[in-house]
Every structure is written in structure tokens, then in C-alpha cells.
Amino acid sequence: MRLVAILAGMIGLAAAAPASAAMFTFSASGGGQASAGMFTTTDTTTTVGGRNAYTITGISGSFNGAAITSLLPTGANFGGEPTDNYLFADQGYFTLSGVGFSVANAPFDYNFYTSSGDNFTRLYTRAAGVAGDPGNDQLNTTQLAFTLDEIVPASRTFTFTASGGGQASAGTFTTTGGTTTVGGRQAYTITGISGSFNGAAITSLLPTGANFGGEPTDNYLFADQGYFTLSGVGFSVANAPFDYNFYTSSGDNFTRLYTRAAGVAGDPGDNQLNTTRLAFTLQPGAAVPEPAAWALLILGFGVTGAAVRGRRAAAAFA
């Protein structure tokens, strides 16, 4: 029943996560300690020590069979190192300060950190709820076998609005869950579009390579300003004489509108709209998890729960 409660808490955390959040599953074991769970983080990274770090915004899971109840705020003191809650997606997962968390009915708070000398993730403790650092040195050098895996959603959605030059559009892009590096930036690939353009329904996404002004569309989408490439994305509108293309001009980084005769593979164009500058907004919507990722997560917690029950006597607060 305890394992079921922990899993329910994890699924609840995932469901409540902001649409722009990223999620990572983790497992940690060593020195008679065992933990597994999920970090929720920001979807974008910050440069920390020359590396790209996510900021942890939530944690759920178990530690030695008990539920992880909360993430400690940034600045929690463990051994004179205030936590910063940064997470790296590659080996050396934390800074020397790391992340702190509380566990149900435990006499200690816990801290995952990465030692700078050997790049291993280790465990530190302090008396639960104590802002200072009385510590518990028996665990302060515990080296952990630590694994981290990102839960890449099957797909994402982004809502958009666009207006300018007498044109108005609003709708939703569906994209891949993961990104591709394009021009040194992380881009999603648009796989679908819905909404309206000047009051008429947007009916379909044009395939990659649709030609507008000699620029074949690539259907890439960036989540920050400068939302498209110079090629952009093409779409069709019900009963409209034109197909339409959102693109970002390289000179000023503004999103603009291009047109071509509807259904024409070449580019006769319609230059009256080719320089139309748009007031364009983009907001992240829902992320749809991969079913296989959730299946592996649940299976992994079943194995972890069984292992913890088998060595309950070794738990730090048993």
C-alpha cells in the first residue's frame, strides 16, 4: 500500500507540473540507502559553471521505503553548502551544493550533491527541519550509484496568436516532444496545426519542403523569440485562394507572413503580404507522456520497493 501511495504521489506531481516543465526519473543506492523518484524541473536551462543546468522545482518518490514529501527551498544548509537545486542531464548531475528534500517520518533531511574531486553523486544529511547544520556525518561521504533519465513526452502543444496588416490568426501547434539542434538552438518539429485565419478554419499543415519565395518550409518551432527559421511553417485555410507561411526574418527577428496560390507546388506568390510583420505570441500547452516511459517508471518502482522491503533493517531511520 505504501508503494501505491508513493506512485500515486508521483503521478499526481506529473499531472500538476506546469506545461513548460521537464521531468526526470532517478534512482540512487549505496551504503545501505535506496531511493527512486522523479524530479520536475524548468523546461529551459541556465548556464552554471559552463554547463547547461535545469532548476529543480519539485521532487517525488521514495527514500528507504518512505515517501519523499517535499523539495527543500534553495539555500537549505548542508555542511556549509547552501543548496541551489540545479540539475545537469549528464554525469555529474548536481553541483557541490546540490538538492535537498524531506522524507516522511524521518529524523533527517537529505541532500544529493556531486563531489568536485571525483564527480560522484553523494548523500549528506541534517536534522529534519533544522535550518542550521548539525549534520549526521555517518552519511556525509556515502557514494551513490545514481542514474537519471529524462521523460521525453510523445508530443507537445503550443498556442499562438498572430495579427498585423489586416490579418488575424489564432490556434495550436502540435509538435514533437523532444527537440533538434537547429542553428545552435533547440527546435521542436511541428507535426500539426489547428485554429483559424481571418475567421476561416486552418485545415492542414503543409508538408516540409513547401515552397514560399524560394524558401522550402522546414516546420521548425523555437519556444522563444524568433519562433521560426527563415523557411518557417506552411498551412492551408478553408476556401482561401492562398496557402500561408509563418516565418522569421533573419534581419530583425520578427515573425512575418508569406502567401502563395493555394495548392500550387511552385511559387507564384502574392507579394502584397510577403513583408507583413505580425504581432506573434506563443505559449506552451500540454505535454503528452510516452506510454512506454510511464510503464518503465512503474516497473522500476515495483523493483525498488521490493528491494527496499528486503533490506529494511539497513535503512538509516528504521
- Rounded to the nearest angstrom, the distance between the terminal CA atoms is 18 Å
How much helix is in the residues? 10-25%
Morphology: elongated
| Average predicted confidence as pLDDT | 81
Low-pLDDT segments: 1-7, 13-17, 303-318
Total beta-strand segments: 26
Structural class: mainly beta
Radius of gyration: 24 Å
Strand content: over 45%
Order of helices and strands: HEEEEEEEEEEEEEEEEEEEEEEEEEEH
User: Largest sheet, described in full?
Assistant: 11 strands, antiparallel
Number of helices: 2
Describe the structure.
The protein has about 325 residues and is mostly beta strands. It has 2 helices and 26 strands. The chain has helices at about 1-15, 290-310, and strands spanning about 20-30, 35-40, 45-50, 50-65, 65-70, 75-80, 80, 85, 100-105, 110-115, 120-125, 140-145, 145-150, 155-165, 165-175, 180, 185-195, 200-205, 210, 215, 220, 235, 240-250, 255-260, 275, 280-290. Strand 10 and strand 11 form a beta hairpin. The radius of gyration is 24 Å and the shape is elongated.
How would you describe this structure in keywords?
318 residues, mainly beta, eleven-stranded antiparallel β-sheet, 2 helices, 26 strands, 11% helix, elongated, disordered N terminus
Summarize the structure.
The chain is mainly beta and 318 residues long.
